[in-house]
């Protein structure tokens, strides 16, 4: 069969659309097949991230945070506002507008880069052939020199709380409530549970989160996780750890319907009644209908497409990127993999540095980290120094009424290289970029301490924490520094 394209990308989420754009920029003829459609059945680019993930959740997080500020915090600043009201249908409509602007933007980028946009389903056959079925059911086989699989992920479901898209919803349903449920249950105190639990708690729901593990946010630094748990608790999120949901059932009829959840914690069984229940227990790789039996691509033991460090699958010239492969299920990780693979197809040799992938939880205050936690360094027996600086001692934080939080830097005790940075505080998502840049350039804590930071800024906390790692923070009393 003659070649139709240099590259076919399957999936136009952040991983796939970045790969397609970079391929095209590098002079490769590129097509992208994507099956996602909106409520009206029209094709949409951008995948989970733009349509049902990163962007819509942040639109609601930002709107609900501003509502809380106007309702509760403005008076601290000497601003009196009366009758603050949340218009939830308008918030949801605005969220949809933001999404639409961005997905149309990706359409424009595809057109501008001469990428052939093929709405519909792609299935990888042998030897880089792809069976394409358009949204209206037309089928044809397409031949490429290379194929990039970027089919993403879908929510994990649990038999004890099956999604009915009415009372029991996943994250997609929880982005579309038209009013704040009075009693909201969430299963899973992971990133989605905390972010969407925060949105609806701010808008008036009583939120109870049931988490199976005994430990809260085990992937975060222990000190930070403790602070986050306490702060979210004060904000009204009732997070119950070690709580395993054993059953759920719908009670009542019509407007009186509710969901009764049974859970077991500490050997005792309890029941809770909710108006809505969000199931947020993780996401699994989405591979249904993606591979023919002779595609040559293998799965790993957890169902992800098996790839090596540079995202090659076991089939020649077939690559896989984003949530459908191992590693953190984060949009920016998928984007970097997409660009890496495009460049490798074009003969370049880039790598993704998986040791420096930032994580952010967009609660308020935000939580962000990169690199190792203190617990990981302890467990590895690596000697390290710690420097930390509280937001409460930062002038700009106090001026902005954002005095809750901490910046913590961990550096190697011998080489002083920065090994991990953990931020809990306002704008942590922005501040963490400084840590990522520092670690990519192998900076030491001393390097950061020698750099001039604008005053007054929240970022000065990074400077002070870096100085603190060598015992020389200016705005902290430190007996060792006074002697030295
Ligand atoms: P996806 O975005 O899932 O895209 C895959 C695309 O492939 C989809 O359009 C799908 O329809 C299509 N597809 C699948 N199979 C086929 C096929 N056979 N043929 C054609 N098309 C196919 N990450 C962050 O980094 N930051 C955040 O703030 C953040 N917030 C999130 C909030 C929520 C509520 C959720 C659910 C996720 C969030 N994420 C966030 C995670 C982020 O959305 C994912 O990591 C990211 O979307 C993965 O990108 P991807 O391109 O691998 O897959
Ligand atoms: P997660 O892995 O972050 O959290 C799931 C939580 O559910 C875990 O704490 C787990 O212990 C718990 N759990 C699992 N089964 C359970 C059960 N039966 N009962 C009670 N608790 C149970 O997953 P998520 O929150 O669903 O998010 C999915 C993915 O989306 C994450 O990997 C995340 O990276 C990504 N995401 C990222 C962001 C962000 O970057 N800000 C935001 C949202 C989602």
Short précis:
With 484 residues, the chain is α/β, with parallel strands linked by helices. It has helices spanning 14-25, 47-52, 54-73, 88-112, 171-174, 191-202, 222-234, 331-345, 374-380, 395-399, 428-440, 445-450, 460-469, 479-483; strands at 5-10, 30-34, 116-124, 129-134, 139-149, 153-155, 168-169, 183-187, 206-210, 237-240, 243-251, 258-265, 268-274, 276-279, 283-285, 318-320, 359-361, 366-371, 384-390, 406-412, 418-425. Strands 1-2-3-4-5 form a 5-stranded mixed barrel. Strands 7-14-8-9-10 form a 5-stranded parallel β-sheet.
The major pleated sheet works out as: 5 strands, mixed, barrel
Unreliable residue runs? none
How big a fraction of the residues is strand? 25-35%
Q: Which ions and ligands are bound to the chains?
A: flavin-adenine dinucleotide, nicotinamide-adenine-dinucleotide
Report the structural category.
alpha/beta
Number of strands: 21
Which fold does the CATH topology of the largest domain refer to? FAD/NAD(P)-binding domain
- Indicate the percent of residues in helices: 25-40%
> CATH top level of the largest domain?
Alpha Beta
**From the coordinates shown, what is the CATH architecture of the largest domain?**
3-Layer(bba) Sandwich
Strand order within the widest beta sheet = 1-2-3-4-5
Please indicate the count of domains. 3
Oligomer: single chain
Q: Summarize model confidence as the mean pLDDT.
A: 97
